[in-house]
Structures are given as structure tokens and as C-alpha cells.
TrEMBL record:
InterPro entries: 7TM_GPCR_serpentine_rcpt_Srab. The lineage of its organism: Eukaryota, Metazoa, Ecdysozoa, Nematoda, Chromadorea. The keyword Transmembrane helix applies. Signal peptide: none annotated. The keyword Ribonucleoprotein does not apply. The chain crosses the membrane at residues 28-49, 61-86, 113-139. It holds the Pfam family 7TM_GPCR_Srab. It is a multi-pass membrane protein. GO terms for cellular component: membrane. This is G_PROTEIN_RECEP_F1_2 domain-containing protein. It is found in: Membrane. Keywords: Membrane, Transmembrane, Transmembrane helix.
Length: 162
């Protein structure tokens, strides 16, 4: 992965940044705890939307997709912070260096779940906006005659965009 002469210096920097620097450890601990709290709050919000029958069907389905995307992004952040905390707390020297010296593909792989959730948040926000524009343009008949196919097709296209 690295040139043999450079590797000891890289490992020394990794140890200094992640192990000896208490601020970095604190950042990962706060990120871990806040991710767990965010997942719990997002799940409660998602359940409230699912069981709230006063919302229009299309709006409710698209909000479910939106909050599902937020949960996926939070899970990605939880995975990321867990990985760093496991490495910092339980790994020693060479193993620590191997765990925390990332190639570009390693870094992307670690962040994949977060990036997927982030992409879904952007797409679901766009679809929520489109649905609201359609509701505004056809306001006279939209609420009385719900076109469930609009939100179903948007939700399916959002899921298939992954």
C-alpha cells in the first residue's frame, strides 16, 4: 500500500492524529452518540408519519421515503464513527496503522452507506417539491381525487435510483 520507508512515518502520524489527540477521539464519541440519538428521533418521526392518516397519501408516502433516507444517512455516520472508535480503542500499532491508513477506495467504501442516504435525501427532497408543485397546479381536484400513482411512481424511482 505504501513505500516501506514512508510507512513508519505514516503510522506515527496516524497514531498522533487518532490515538494521542483526545479531540479526535471526542469527535468520534460525540458523532457516535449523536448518530444513535438521530436514528431514534428519525424512527419516531417516521412512525408518526406512517400512523398519521390526516396527511395526504402522496405527501405521506414521500415523507416516509425522506425520513427513511435520513435514517440511512444516520446509520452510515454510526458505522463510520464505530469503525474509528473500534480502531482507536482496541487496535495496537501495526493493526491500528492498517485500519486507519486508507486508500481512496477504502475511504469511499467506509462512507458508502452515508453517501447513499445523502443521495436519497436530495432525491426525496426533489420529489417532495415536484409533488407539491403538482398539488398546487391541480389544487381544485388534487385533494378530492388523490392520484396515488404519482407518489408511488416517485417512491419507486427514488428507490431504483440507488
Amino acid at each position: 500500500m505504501f513505500n516501506a520507508s514512508v510507512l513508519p512515518r505514516i503510522c506515527k502520524m496516524i497514531k498522533w492524529i487518532y490515538v494521542e489527540n483526545s479531540r479526535m477521539r471526542s469527535v468520534f464519541i460525540v458523532e457516535f452518540i449523536s448518530s444513535i440519538l438521530a436514528i431514534c428521533i428519525a424512527l419516531l418521526t417516521l412512525l408518526a408519519i406512517i400512523f398519521n392518516k390526516t396527511l395526504h397519501f402522496n405527501m405521506r408516502l414521500l415523507l416516509i421515503c425522506f425520513w427513511g433516507a435520513i435514517i440511512i444517512a444516520c446509520i452510515g455516520t454510526l458505522i463510520d464513527s464505530s469503525y474509528y472508535l473500534i480502531a482507536i480503542i482496541s487496535k495496537m500499532d501495526a493493526e491500528l496503522c492498517a485500519w486507519l491508513s486508507f486508500t481512496q477506495s477504502d475511504c469511499i467504501a467506509l462512507r458508502n452507506v452515508y453517501y447513499m442516504g445523502l443521495l436519497m435525501i436530495v432525491v426525496s427532497t426533489l420529489f417532495l417539491s415536484v409533488e407539491r408543485v403538482i398539488a398546487t397546479l391541480f389544487y381544485q381536484t388534487y385533494e378530492r381525487n388523490p392520484c396515488k400513482w404519482i407518489s408511488i411512481s416517485m417512491a419507486l424511482s427514488q428507490i431504483s435510483s440507488l
